[in-house]
Amino acid sequence: MVKFSSRVPADGTDAVGSILKAAADPKIISFAGGLPAPELFPVKEMEAATDQAFEKHGRELMQYGGAKGLPELRQWACQHVAEKENIRCEADNVLITTGSEQALDLVGKALVDPGDVVLVEQPTYLCAVDVFKSYGAKLVSVAMDDDGLRTDALEDVLKKYPEAKLLYTVPNFQNPTGRTIPEERRQRIAELAAQYDLMVLEDNPYGEIRFAGEHVPAIKSFDQDGHVCYMGTFSKTLAPGFRLGWVMATKEMIDKLTVLKQSADLHTDNLAQYATVEYLQANDLAAHVKEISALYGKRKQLMIDGINKYFPDKVKSTDPDGGMFLWVEVPGVDDTIAVFKECLKNNVAFVPGDPFYAGQPQPGTFRLNYSNMAEDQIEVGLKRLGTVLAKYVH
Amino acid sequence: MVKFSSRVPADGTDAVGSILKAAADPKIISFAGGLPAPELFPVKEMEAATDQAFEKHGRELMQYGGAKGLPELRQWACQHVAEKENIRCEADNVLITTGSEQALDLVGKALVDPGDVVLVEQPTYLCAVDVFKSYGAKLVSVAMDDDGLRTDALEDVLKKYPEAKLLYTVPNFQNPTGRTIPEERRQRIAELAAQYDLMVLEDNPYGEIRFAGEHVPAIKSFDQDGHVCYMGTFSKTLAPGFRLGWVMATKEMIDKLTVLKQSADLHTDNLAQYATVEYLQANDLAAHVKEISALYGKRKQLMIDGINKYFPDKVKSTDPDGGMFLWVEVPGVDDTIAVFKECLKNNVAFVPGDPFYAGQPQPGTFRLNYSNMAEDQIEVGLKRLGTVLAKYVH
Predict the structure, then answer these.
(1) Where does the signal sequence lie (chains A, B) (predicted)?
(2) How far is A244 from chain B (nearest CA, A)?
(3) Which member of A4, A41, A59 has the closest CB to residue B62?
(4) pLDDT at A27
């Protein structure tokens, strides 16, 4: 028997793994995953970009590279957030990571000692819960409403835990709820971070996939003194399989994250980095993202239509302006897993809300994904879901 | 001021970073790096393999993949170690990692709680020291001789620390010394691991780059009951820039490492994985590795010749049968860094021995790399080195 460290989760705690496995049966219409639509991947363009990368930099891309990532890619990230988010930074403020999941892991490792308080949204991205727990964090949830994280609730929590190290937030089209935090709250989050010397980890994988409404500036754009680390990724705009993300922070923070990055995997794969640089030079990423957004917007609307048509009236759902997920609240349900199992029998699946809560879960909640579902399957799936929900709502 | 966790090294402790920076001046002949020879990278073949991967699996390789890595690659690793090392395993015993550095990090994270004893060779791979320290390990060094890790010393250490969690060893052409552990010692290490319920982390990046002598079976081939985790990599045989490694262990261990892998970066880059699978199908990796070994053997011999010609007689060095490094011991030197600085002034560089020691460093030691140095530069560099060393040896 191996004596695992206290960081390793106990057996049988991989609830989401079991759920995704159960939902993988091809008979099942599964809204459980979190995948982009593969039919929009620019395969030909990326193949051409990879060829270019080999022609121009064959030996460099096969050799060891720098821990911070390709300067061209870090420069691109700076220009990108300058245009999109009004964030001013230089290449030295950027670390390229093996997907933004690694940025989450490195920031957790850099800041969290066992017992340190980390604030998360209620509910929050479930892998963030795993990461922070693996470094011994004491997780404290901050309440949300339809406008995302409530800043009055954040202030209350900070009064109780003024020593809190970190706030993790997904301000745009949050995973799992699809909610977006409005501008005045973002400004307030930046103020509270400065006041309480709190680091904010702003994770923005979905912000560019907007199909309705107006862009809201990043929390980092209100940051005066280095209290916000901003995470970006190519996973939703280009190719999640390439595992390319980045984190933007003060030079001091980036230097420390780089030391940890070297221990984690030395540097991010050069092939994916060089290929992506060539893709960005030869193609119009913004136009590609517009195409993605249009498709997801169409699918989300079909999902909302199906919810209106088939779900009992008392069931509530969010109606996001972008991203990949929406969130459902079914009143009167005590055991969400029982509903999930009943749905599986009816060949439809979702992710039950429980694993998205760092604390006590709100029963009767679940997440639906619409980005990775053929249009003709959405209505069929929601009809099945509605049939099951009708048995639970009285 | 950010309050970093206790895992983050203090400022000014990145000795190796400073050394490599100092040695990067193009005037300097630097034996400090640890890079493969880029002129042997199979750039054309890998470009063709990448095209094949896009043609066959364009959408899959851009989409999210499984945390354990491509089944084809895990299967290949099983066949490879079955043929080379007489290790029997199945794809479920293999996790593909983002370079073998990540395997080191995940095994450290999975096993080491703060205060746990981890045994390392004296001297050892310096990044391993960083990884284990980052999880709070108490590092204990085990003495070596010309035949690598001394098993009598290991037994003494285990009597003193019977609770030791892990032994980290590089049995073939060790980094930094170039030493190789003979078969009977490997068998003894496996016995002691079983007796003391110790996990052995056998790291084998260099074993295939053999230019003299006979292959020695892996420690894992003597493992009866899951006390050895075996690490392999494509970094020295194919392309370090792709960041592709693997770890082989019991299914229980692999399942736990997979949970941690998901928190670390979800999965390893699909582009590099699919391209490598295509490369392995279309090319003869063994023939390519033979070519690498022949070149490194030639360079090592030039280095040995230069040492014999230019170094003072009292200076000792190892004479490896493979790998990329050899190890020099200069008697009578107290301050290796002073020698290093003097060498820089003479436009030649190495890595001083100090950072390779988890405990008290042995003064007057340093590492020389021969894999990444043009033949005509080796003699020139060693002549410069010899001139400086002559001032220190009396």
Answers:
(1) none
(2) 9
(3) A41
(4) 92
Q: Is B270 on the interface with A (CB under 8 A)?
A: yes
Closest-approach residue (CA) in chain B for A20: B66
Query: Smallest Cβ distance to A2: which of B62, B252, B270?
Result: B252
- Pull the structure tokens for residue A126: 């479930």
- Which residue in chain A has the smallest CA separation from B63? A241
Question: Does residue A231 sit at the B interface (CB-CB below 8 Å)?
Answer: no
Q: How many beta carbons lie within 10 A of that of residue B242, not counting itself?
A: 27
The pLDDT of residue B12: 67
3-state secondary structure string, chain B? CCCCCCCCCCCCCCHHHHHHHHCCCCCCEECCCCCCCHHHCCHHHHHHHHHHHHHHHHHHHHCCCCCCCCHHHHHHHHHHHHHHHCCCCCHHHEEEEEHHHHHHHHHHHHHCCCCCEEEEEECCCHHHHHHHHHCCCEEEEEEEECCEECHHHHHHHHHHCCCCCEEEECCCCCCCCCCCCCHHHHHHHHHHHHHCCCEEEEECCCCCCECCCCCCCCHHHHCCCCCEEEEEECCCCCCHHHCEEEEECCHHHHHHHHHHHHHHHCCCCHHHHHHHHHHHHHCCHHHHHHHHHHHHHHHHHHHHHHHHHHCCCCCEECCCCECCEEEEECCCCCCHHHHHHHHHHCCEECEECHHHCCCCCCCCEEEEECCCCCHHHHHHHHHHHHHHHHHHCC
- Local structure of A73: helix, strand or coil: helix
Q: pTM of the predicted model, to two decimals?
A: 0.97
User: Token pair of A107, please?
Assistant: 């920031």
CA of A294 vs chain B CAs: smallest distance (Å): 19
A99 contacts in chain B (CB < 8 Å): 265-266
Per-residue pLDDT of chain A (394 residues; tens, 9 = 90+): 788 998 888 876 666 777 777 777 889 999 999 999 999 999 999 999 999 999 999 999 999 999 999 999 999 999 999 999 989 999 999 999 999 999 999 999 999 999 999 999 999 999 999 999 999 999 999 999 999 999 999 999 999 999 999 999 999 999 999 999 999 999 999 999 999 999 999 999 999 999 999 999 999 999 999 999 999 999 999 999 999 999 999 999 999 999 999 999 999 999 999 999 999 999 999 999 999 999 999 999 999 999 999 999 999 999 999 999 999 999 999 999 999 999 999 999 999 999 999 999 999 999 999 999 999 999 999 999 999 999 998 7
Residues of B in contact with A256 (CB under 8 A): 2, 4, 8
d(CA A260, nearest CA chain B) in Å: 7
Establish if B163 touches chain A: CB-CB under 8 angstroms.
no
CA-angle at A50, arms to A46 and A51, nearest 5°: 120
Residue matched to tokens 């791979």: B125
Instruction: Write out residues 114-133 of B within 8 Å (CB-CB) of A.
Output: 116, 127, 130-131
Is 90 exceeded by the pLDDT of residue B2? no
From chain B, the residues in CB contact with A125 under 8 A are none
Best A4, A97, A225, A236 member to test B by mutation, with max B CBs in 10 Å, is: A4
Phi/psi of residue A95, nearest 5 degrees: -120, 125
Residues with Cβ within 8 Å of A81's Cβ and at least 6 positions away in sequence, in order, are A87, A89, A218, A220, A230, A232, A248
């060790």: which residue's tokens?
Answer: B174
Nearest CA in chain B to A234: B62
Cβ contact B241–A102 (<8 Å): no
CB contact under 8 A, B263 and A134: yes
Q: For chain B, say whether A258 makes contact (Cβ under 8 Å).
A: no
